[in-house]
């Protein structure tokens, strides 16, 4: 069970990371200081790799994993200085790609200001809405005159 929960946590973190990268308005609204504060609050269990956050998902006992009682650690790349370096790398390498997909209307923007579960639900909802819109557009093209396509 702990393994399943741990990998679910991990998957949720991946979704959060992806949706953070895609959320343009929110990224525009967050200052670097806020991003640093968010990311540097993350703690990972050294034993079972469960993920916590000092503000949004604290462990019941400080620095101790709820699941396996292992010590909670801060990853090197979540330290404030490392987060600043990561954000600079993001702005120079990833952001242009996000802008490219936004311009070509292939970007799925999902607000990432919530729990992993809520973000996953939002992501699936946005994907469904996009798929429905596409199938409506496709059925629209079926109405073109015979022999036209
Ligand atoms: Zn643990």
Provide structural commentary.
The protein has 149 residues and is mainly alpha-helical. The chain has one domain: 3-Layer(aba) Sandwich (Rossmann fold), CATH 3.40.50.300. 58% of the residues lie in helices and 6% in strands. The protein is built from 5 helices and 3 strands; from the N terminus they run αααβββαα. It has helices spanning 2-22, 24-29, 32-40, 80-103, 116-141; strands at 42-45, 51-53, 72-73. Strands 2-1-3 form a 3-stranded antiparallel sheet. Strand 1 and strand 2 (51-53) form a beta hairpin. The longest helix is centred in the C-terminal third of the chain and has 26 residues, at 116-141. The radius of gyration is 20 Å and the shape is flat. Bound molecules: zinc ion (ZN). Zinc ion is lined by residues 45, 47-48, 50, 65, 67-68, 70.
């Amino acid at each position: 069970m702990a393994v399943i929960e741990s990998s679910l946590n991990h998957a949720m973190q991946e979704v959060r990371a992806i949706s953070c990268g895609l959320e343009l308005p929110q990224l525009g609204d967050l200052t670097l200081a806020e991003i640093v504060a968010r990311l540097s609050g993350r703690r990972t269990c050294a034993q079972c790799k469960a993920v916590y956050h000092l503000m949004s998902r604290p462990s019941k006992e400080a620095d101790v994993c709820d699941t396996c009682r292992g010590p909670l650690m801060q990853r090197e790349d979540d330290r404030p200085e490392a987060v600043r370096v990561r954000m600079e790398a993001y702005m120079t390498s990833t952001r242009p790609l996000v802008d490219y997909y936004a311009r070509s209307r292939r970007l799925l923007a999902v607000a990432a200001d919530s729990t992993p579960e809520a973000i996953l639900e939002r992501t699936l909802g946005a994907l469904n809405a996009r798929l429905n819109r596409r199938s409506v557009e496709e059925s629209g093209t079926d109405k073109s005159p015979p022999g036209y396509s």
